[in-house]
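Ops channel
N.P.: pipeline sanity check, posting one input/output pair.
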């Protein structure tokens, strides 16, 4: 099924004009240079407690929100590939200093089959290539959680409890390593905390990074 869907998408790309997901101008990258150039770069650090903080690049508003939704819910893969190169160009190099491994937040297998890619891995593939840091899918999502954006912080934490395990095949690769957990959005940080909890006995250091963050309401 995956092969058929990928072939169908390739055929559509060949015969239908490819347009920017924001302004609809023709572009082969899913998002035009003008629109991606308008993304605000507003780095923020979100402190989660337990010695963890999440570094982010931009607030999850406006064009950033529209781009992520085009990637995740309309499954426009090339948007993620282009956005990944943008992230690689704008991430502060010191964030990746002394990082041995990038670990993307995983999707449950059911959601992966529906989407056909993990947006967290796709967004940071260019960073991995440019900074010569391997992406290791060391964590599996074993609980198919409900949509987290509908939940408050306490509900997220409860919903995510026992949702992740370390893949046995990758345990030797992460042992004693300095890892960075990456995701597309940080809202409450519950996902990062849950994954950090299971990784901590095996790894030397944990950092967290998300492309965007949900602004706090006042």
């Amino acid at each position: 099924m995956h092969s058929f869907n990928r072939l169908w998408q390739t055929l559509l790309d060949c015969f239908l004009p490819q347009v920017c997901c924001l302004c609809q101008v023709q572009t082969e990258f899913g998002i035009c240079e003008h629109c991606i150039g308008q993304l605000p770069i507003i780095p923020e650090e979100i402190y989660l407690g337990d010695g963890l903080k999440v570094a982010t690049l931009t607030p999850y508003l406006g064009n950033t929100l529209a781009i992520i939704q085009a990637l995740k819910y309309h499954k426009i893969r090339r948007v993620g590939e282009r956005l990944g190169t943008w992230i690689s160009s704008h991430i502060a190099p010191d964030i990746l200093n002394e990082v041995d491994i990038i670990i993307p937040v995983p999707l449950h297998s059911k959601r992966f089959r529906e989407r056909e890619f993990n947006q967290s891995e796709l967004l940071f593939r260019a960073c991995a290539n440019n900074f010569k840091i391997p992406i290791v899918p060391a964590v599996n999502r074993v609980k198919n959680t409900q949509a987290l954006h509908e939940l408050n912080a306490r509900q997220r934490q409860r919903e995510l409890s026992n949702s992740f395990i370390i893949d046995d095949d990758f345990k030797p690769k992460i042992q004693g390593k300095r890892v960075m957990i990456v995701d597309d959005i940080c809202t409450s940080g519950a996902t990062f905390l849950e994954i950090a909890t299971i990784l901590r006995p095996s790894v030397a250091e944990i950092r967290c990074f998300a492309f965007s963050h949900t602004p706090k309401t006042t």
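N.P.: looks fine end to end. Residues 166 and 181 are 13 Å apart (CA to CA).
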